[in-house]
Amino acid sequence: MPRATLSVAALFILLMTAPKVSAIQYTYTNIDMSNYYITVPMSLNNAGQVVGYAVATFQSNAVPFSYQSGSYSVYSPPISFKAEFTRINNNGYVVGVDGYPSWGGPIPTGFLNTFSNLNTSGTYSGISVVNTWYDSSTGKYTTGPGETYITGINDSRTMVGYYWNILGSYQGLLTNKTGGLLGPPEVDYTPISVSGYINTYAMDINNSGQVVGWVNNPNTVGFIQTGDNIKLVNLGPINSQSDTRLVAVNDCGQAIAQVGMYASLIYNIQSETFSPIELLNLPSQYFGLQVYDINDQGQIVGYYFNQSGGHAFLASPVPLPGSLLLLGSGVLGLGAVGLRRRKRS
Prior knowledge:
The protein has 345 residues and is mainly beta. Helices cover 7% and strands 47% of the residues. It is globular, with a radius of gyration of 21 Å. The N terminus and C terminus are likely disordered.
């Protein structure tokens, strides 16, 4: 059952072009699944467990998968039509989406997989927003479980996502209690929307309750919701692109920003700065990078593009050289000395 939508008066909206800081370098490991046309890693947790989806051939349905320490597992949710694992939390709970009508499948349904580890089949709980929505296949309004996408979950099992509403647009959702379920299939949620924008997509939530996602009308900009405040983030002008999508956030306040089609950045929410992502020793003729998640150690997952197609990766940040760390501590020490002198004067 929905709760009251966040008040427009409570929204604090700011469009910005953030200052750039130096690139973060990463070493990476390819995690393409053999015998699959494409592997898309959507999320990873602090234990290094990776989840996502894979497609065997260009015209085949997607299947959800997990990966850890070189080992893969493939799963079969109840509908199993272009199913995806979209996020995993640090306790091993996984959310996802099952069914895509644009691919000839049934109405999309979010799900929560309650297995305690990724080596068991798990128990799937369907999650749908129950409301009145327009069914384009029949040309009529229908009341019941509607198109629902669950895209994020934190360690308290608070979930975010988006659903198709009666106005014919997508609206974000934030579940109101642990697990978010009143009982299959209805979910207890608060809608998330931004005044002046048609569609709102809530993509991830961290353990502080910060929600990230994006809105469009028709331009696409990212948003960060902290409590009742929403801030819009536009990094598009950085790469001469028109779109900014915030797709993930960790507990350190780092968000993944997808800018345009083939570029991804790390956006620091507190300092309002961004860092380019540099994968070391990429193959020649590399021309694009798409990152989907970041954990608290700064590890990222996504895929890069070259002449042979897209390739899934898991990457870890390169530690700063000791000389730079000493330099940083020295600068901080000088700042502290200067502050003490000013206080004495």
